[in-house]
Structures are given as C-alpha cells and as structure tokens.
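pasting for the record
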Amino acid sequence: MTAFDFDALINRRHTDSVKWHHPDDVLPMWVADVDFAAPPAVIEALQQRLAHGVFGYHFESPTLRETVVAWVAERYGWEIEPEWLLFPPDVMRGMNWAAQTVARPGEALLLQSPVYRPLFDMVRNGDFVLQDAPMVADAQGRYSLEMTALAAAVTPETRVLLLCNPQNPTGRVFSRRQLQHVAEFCLRHDLTILSDEIHADLVYSEARHTPIASLHPDIAQRTITFIAPSKTFNLAGLKAAVGIIPNAELRRQMKHNQRGLIATVNVLGMVAMETAYAQGEPWLDALRAYLQANRDTVMDFVAAGQLPGVRMTRPEGTFLAWLDFRNTRWADAPAKHIQDEAKVALMEGTWFGDAGQGFVRLNFGCPRSLLQDGLQRIRAALTAA
C-alpha cells in the first residue's frame, strides 16, 4: 500500500463530469481523464488560494517558468530556456493556435491515423487540407510510423506535421530512432512539427519519452511542443498547458497571431500547474506503478482468452488500451455493442479515423475494482449465447 490510495472509489456522477454523464447503469471508460483525486499537494495549494477569497486579475507566477524548465529537464532530459514558454489553457487550443500561425487556409497538415480526433478537427478549424499517412501495425499489432506513407502523402502544399507522442489511442511511445526518421523527413520537406506530448509523463518501465525537439537544434528550431499537467495529475478542468518554442521567430509569430483571442492560464490553473510540477513527482511515480499494474491486468485478461477474438498490444505509455474487435461478432461498431449489451462506455475506434474501424479505446485510469468490473461486463456480453 502506497501513501496514495488509488483504490478509493470517488463518486463522480452528477458532478458535471463529461466522462460520467451516462445513465447510472453504464460504467464509463471512454474519455481520457482518470478517476483519481489530484495530488494532495495540489489540492492543498488550491485550498489555500481559495481561502484568500480574492480572484482578481493576476500576473504570471515569478517561479512558474523555472519550475516547468526543471520538470522538463528532470523527466525528459531536455534542457530548455524559460523564454521559450507560452501558456495556453490547453494543448489543443495551443495546437490550433500554432497551426493557424504557421499555415494558411488551403495549405496542408499531415498526420498519422489512428490518432486523437481533435487533430483531424484542426484541419477544419483552419480551412486546411488533410493529409493522412496511416500508421502500420506488425503481426503482433504493434504500430509504427510509416515513412513510406508519409513520403507518399506529402506535397509542396504541406506545411505542418502533426505528431502525437506518446500516441493516442495506441499507447505507443516512439523510439528515438523512429523520431529521428520523422525529424529527417521534416527537414527534407521543410515542415514545421507540432508535437502533442500531453501524455509524456505517463510512460511505463520499458520505455522512455523523447521530445522530438530534443533530438537536434535544427529540429528544435522547427518544432512547437505542447505538454500539460492535465493528464498527468488529472487537472484537465483547470485549463493549464505549456507550449515550448525554441525558435524566437516562431514565438514572435505566435504572440502576434494571438490577436486578442487566445486565452491564457487562469489563476487556479496556474497554482495547480506550478504545484504539480514542483511537488507532484512522488504522487506521479506511485500513479505510474498503479497504472502499469492496471495495464497488465487488461493484457492478462485478453491474453487468457477472456475476450474471445480480441487482440491487444501492450501500450508503453498513456492509460489507454487499444482493443482489436475485428475478429468478433461486434466488428462493425464494437463500442456501440459494448455499451448496448455490456453497459460499458468506450470510445469507438472510428473516432480516431478510418484506420480505427473495428477497434475500441478503453481507459484503464481507474480504481482496479472498476476496471475488473468493466472487463467482466464485456466478457459476459461478448460470450453470451
């Protein structure tokens, strides 16, 4: 038993939770937030700020930048500078802001599906052209970035490569070698890399997260990286993220393109972010161990044949399992069947692009008793006569 109780059941129903906005007989395991209370240090810091009782206009904390710089150096081995940082309210707001800064309507964004749906939405938001170079899975179902597909998809109109690492929904943590291939590709084609690294802190023992911008100064100069404490410490509702932009001209363009529309972190989000990065490491280390055990619980359940016909590859990061139902009777729309018949809410694979047909994404970021309940519900419904 650790000092942090991740087995505790916290009732999130009727709390305006997106994840838990389901009928009471449905167990939600879909939206990517976890069912754990935030670190005690963060809760205490917020309580102290609330006790002050005044929430007027605020400056950026004078120690916030150095705290982020120290976190990035400690967790990812990447030395960054305080002036490289911007603070959008969330990663996707930052990604859209960056895309609309470096590309014009009619130009193209290149991505690799299956991938987080809001990256597709960025194309529509900026009136861009979508270029999809789907990832490939090996015989064991392990996905890789497909350089041949990237080369076939890129055109002279391509301005941006959208990278998601650790990858959502597959849980891949791309190796340094794979990222080097991608970086070289972007150098050859003069592409700006927008890298969603929101799950960077949630990597398991067999992998290590490498920020693509850390590979080489030339790559850093064409990369805008986004991280956040939101997935790591379950703070998504407080709206606090970090953009890391080594290129001074790109930073200038980003600030110019703010145009009075892009909000920044609010005072409570700022308190939570700085406290999490300054004091949250012990909690995070305990959380990762718990999530890794949850991941292995799902892996063992599938490997034991408890979900006949279903396949799963071990995620190296995130708290998300990508389950292949293509060899089951639910192959057409597995998440729909699972919610209708098992009363468990998962994400339909097609939400992540056409390459997700026949798959579902399961969020195992919950107390183990809930995870086991969800797995047993799916097993019972799938194996019913």
